[in-house]
Amino acid sequence: MAIYLDFEKKIKTIEEDIISAQVRHDEQAEVIHKASLEKEVAKTFKNLSDFQKLQLARHQDRPYALDYINLIVRDKYEIHGDRHFSDDAAIICYIGYIGDEKAVIIGEQKGRGTKNKLKRNFGMPHPEGYRKALRAAKLAEKFKLPLLMLIDTPGAYPGIGAEERNQSEAIARNLLELSELDTQTISIVIGEGGSGGALAIGVADRLAMMRYSIFSVISPEGCSAILWNDPTKVETATNALKITSQDLKEQKLIDDIVDEPLIGAHRDKEGAAKAMADYFLAELKTLRTMSSQERLDARYEKLVSLGAYSE
Length: 311
Description:
This protein is of the alpha/beta class. It is built from 14 helices and eight strands.
């Protein structure tokens, strides 16, 4: 059963009217309701607040990395393990075809249902997950395959075991290695991009965000707890943090916004998957017009231009 947020209640009512008209075989009523739905979607989703976009980014019906991989990748084969400690299920790695392009795909996977969420550690990778991702990235470099990385995590796992196995070093190593990786790389935030957990697979030739995704150094809940010690100020923190795709594009912290369907990926998974695949193939075509050195130089210039400082 579809889950509707508070600001989607009118959309829910119209969609129920459409289903009712279809059951009655009332084609005229169906056409009228569909026109009403189109107007209501435009009215609702063109005026979303930052907090409403945060709700969409976390919507439990929103596609996760594995959903996108199943929709856009064919002849896929999963890559397991970091060859050091274990296979972290919070990071998934595949090799397969997107369109006619053979590619390596890395994603952070949250999981649905209690059992699967526990298996995926709620999308919070351990160090071995990031080391598995780096192994897959190096495989892409070795065989001259483009790399697609899908970011969706509240953050890297902060548990004792993860710290004992050097979580910070694993993230830092990925930042270094991905900045120097000699193949075309594209990273897309598909839901939540949380802190270093997102950055560890976020260094790429192109860093993009889905329309209703978020990218932040800290969650709004964490921010409100630290600044005000008040969990009710999450919406205030969301507005202050500037975490939406539009905010980050304006600040030139990301390259592009992937134009997922206006009604949201949680209502149109196939449309969102097509938008992602089209973006990947179009940007890959552009990146292939550049020499290896030109691409690495552009990646370096982009990285060092981030942020500001004064003496």
